[in-house]
Amino acid sequence: LYTRSVSVTVDFFSKSNQSRDPFDSSAMAAEFRAAFDKHVVSVGQPVLLVFNKVKLVCTVLSLEEARLSELVGEKQGSADAAGGMEATRGVVVSQTEVIFSKAENSALNLVGSKKGSQRPALINPDWD
Predict the structure, then answer these.
(1) What is the pTM of this model?
(2) Which of 34, 71, 90, 128 has its CA 20 to 30 A from that of 47?
């Protein structure tokens, strides 16, 4: 299965080596695709990404499968317009969209267009 998009949380690998500098999510997405091109990733899998000499741990949150027509550049018909289906694993390719969200309690300063929002919890942990 080729991957249309992958959503990952990102945090510093080492808590003692944190930076307040902004991390450009668009540049990080390009680096992620280059580092993991033709690699299989699965939901829940942590991977190490070195970006600007900083080690980051990225945990795969979700994957969406790609249709072959998307990979070869064909126009999508109405049946393909709805998008791919959720997947549990897939192959990262050069066309894979990578969306980053900051891990909970992370000091990472994430900026750029490939920045996703933190998903809200389905059940409030403070619920009685």
Answers:
(1) 0.77
(2) 71
Residue 86 near residue 80 (C-beta atoms within 8 A)? no
Q: How far apart are the first and last CA of the chain?
A: 42
Q: Look at residues 32, 37, 27 and name the one whose alpha carbon lies nearest to residue 7.
A: 32
d(C-alpha 104, C-alpha 11), whole Å: 9
Concatenating the DSSP letter of every residue in the chain gives -BEEEEEEEEEES-TTS---SEEEHHHHHHHHHHHHTT-EEETT-EEEEEETTEEEEEEEEEEEEPPHHHHTTPPP-TTTTT-PPEESEEE--TT-EEEEEEPTT---EEESTTBPPPPPPSS-TT--
